[in-house]
Amino acid sequence: ELENELLQAEEHNRISMNKLSSFREKEKVIPALMQKIELLNDDITKYKKNSTMLKDGLLHEQNKAKVLAVKLATVKQDNQIAEKKLALYEMEKRAVPMLNHILDELNTEVIRNKKMQRTVDHPRQKGRC
Fold first, then answer.
1. What is the dihedral angle through the alpha carbons of 6, 7, 9, 11, rounded to the nearest 10 degrees?
2. Interatomic CA distance for residues 73 and 65, integer angstroms
3. Using CA atoms, how far apart are residues 73 and 80, in angstroms rounded to an integer?
4. Measured CA distances, 107 to 111, 117, 122 (Å)
């Protein structure tokens, strides 16, 4: 009976030693796993930084786009004003010859009126030249 207990104890001891040996083998892997975890954490940190930089860059580009949109609207408005000024200039340009013609007619009329006024004010008297 003691011999049987001794055999069982030895078997139990052998199983425990195997478990201990297996545990020690697994324990050797833990530092490598920890190192891999650290590297992964470093990668995650880098990706977060890159993501933040990309978000900042995107915000910057969106702000630039907004500024450009405002500038474009201003340029379009300036173009509309310039087109209106050009149309006004074209109308004035067409009107100038007509206005000059009217002015010539008025000047001619004024000269005619002045001559008639002189004739009325100072009629020629025959024989007094």
1. 160
2. 12
3. 11
4. 6, 15, 22
d(CA 117, CA 110): 10
Distance CA 35, CA 21 (A): 23
What digits encode the pLDDT tens for the residues 22-80?
A: 888 888 888 999 999 999 999 999 999 999 999 999 999 999 999 999 999 999 999 99
Residue 127 has pLDDT above 90, yes or no: no
Let me know how many helices (H) and strands (E) the chain has, helices first: 1, 0
pTM: 0.47
Greatest CA separation found in the chain? Answer: 184
Rounded alpha-carbon distances, angstroms, from residue 81 to 71, 84, 87, 94, 95: 15, 5, 10, 20, 21
Tell me the residue length of the chain.
129
Place of tokens 């860059």: 57
Is residue 118 scored above 90 in pLDDT? no
